[in-house]
Amino acid sequence: MFNEKEKLEEIIRLNNEVNRINDLDLLLEKILTKARILANADAGSIYITEENKLRFSHSQNDTLSKNLPAGKKLIYTSFTLPIDNHSIAGYVAKTGEILNLEDAYKIPPDRPYHFSKDFDLVSNYRSKSMLTVPLKTTRKDIVGVLQLINAQDDQGNIVAFTPEDEILIAHFANTAGTAIERAQMTRTIILRMISMAELRDPMETGPHVNRVAGYSVEIFESWAKKKGFSQKFIDEKRDLLRIAAMLHDVGKVAISDLILKKPSRLNKNEYELIKQHTILGARLFAHPKSEVDEAALEVVLNHHEHWDGTGYPGFIDPLSGKPIPGYEDTNGKPRPKRGEEIPVFGRVVALADVYDALSSHRSYKKPWEEKKVLELIQTEAGRQFDPLMVEAFFSCLDVIHNIKKQYSE
Q: Could you tell me which residues come within 8 angstroms of residue 201 by beta carbon, excluding any fewer than 6 positions away?
């Protein structure tokens, strides 16, 4: 537990930390984690405002997580709530008030809101103390709701949230609300770029790029943990990777509609033309001004390289379109990258993109059955894919399935 001086110092540090995160999903996860630490809460959820509804976006529960196998994450289902007085979160979003409930099961009958016991019944969990706080921007717009559940004392006993907790979390929520607004703007800009690509390629949709980005982050995190990287390093790279992965096929805006919208498989010449999207997309980031640009360049240029050296476009300068000196093949063309010559982000997105492409409907094919997709990925370990990435993929398959449902077409 923090003393008053430590709480103030922690708030300042967390304000700086959340303001460095660019991706919306990772920001929400971080906000929930840090708010729970500040208030010593066992569990919590975070909702995001979508027009006149709240979308249940993230959930954490230490008690339930302890019962999971090592390395596994809590799986939850996304849903929406109306912004009205009937639910606790809806009431807070509608009124902008903070609700501090000593026991969610003992809400006075004259209150307009009520507590739904459905989750507790399904999970065999007992929600008791509950602190629900609006997430506001500097303009006082409510962009979401933060809900902390079951405050604990130093011995782990469930206690009520204190008035000091209210002040502390409300202060943090103000910074969090502004950070969420900024991250939403970043995602909106990226999705507008994707919409441009979607005008050319009907398969390059918002749900597709969000799935590929979500899969990539989970695979990378599992891989990085197995490699012994620190959580701080992993968190920093996850933020960059998620944004970069959403942009993996942005180069398709420069490819002809006759190729992108062809309702059948491409012939050899057409396939050679569409391969240019990696180079054309990389040109957008060829003069990087930030770490995000650098990560996007890495992904866009390398997500079609193969572990065994049979992919494309190889060691090429995206601006000139010429081979990098010293990396030509016997025909003077760029030599394909192989193994760890392929940057990590490229190896991750390569796997995530293929999994989603095979699992999804395309103009020339129906979705493959899951069993067939998994068999192919396993077979391609050490050929098309980094074998350690494949191992990481299978270790987080339950989370990947959950992301698929969350961002369905």
A: 249, 252, 255, 260, 261
Whether residue 83 sits in one domain with residue 120:
yes
pLDDT averaged over 10-residue windows placed end to end, the chain, 409 residues: 63 75 91 94 97 94 92 86 96 97 96 94 95 95 97 96 94 93 90 69 72 97 96 92 94 80 81 91 93 96 97 96 93 95 98 95 78 98 98 96 89
Question: Is 204 in contact with 256 (CB distance < 8 Å)?
Answer: no
CB count, 10 Å around CB of 225? 15
Give the three-class secondary structure for 148. strand
One domain for residues 164 and 25: yes
Instruction: Give the separation between CA 332 and CA 396, rounded to whole angstroms.
Output: 41
| Domains identified in the chain, total number | 2
Report how far residue 219's alpha carbon sits from residue 240's, in angstroms, rounded to the nearest whole number. Answer: 14
User: What residue type is assigned to position 67 of the chain?
Assistant: N
Q: Is 42 helix (H, G, I), strand (E, B) or coil?
A: strand
- Cα maximum dimension of the chain: 82
Token readout for 226 is 């197995």
Report the alpha-carbon distance of residue 220 to residue 224 in Å, rounded. Answer: 6
Tell whether 191 is covered by a domain. Answer: no
- Verify that 142 and 215 share a domain, yes or no: no
DSSP strand E in 309-387: where?
none
Q: What is the pTM of this model?
A: 0.85
Question: At which residue do the structure tokens 């270790």 appear?
Answer: 395
Chain-centroid distance, C-alpha 144: 17
Residues 6 or more apart from 142 whose CB is under 8 A from it?
49, 93, 96, 134, 135, 136, 177
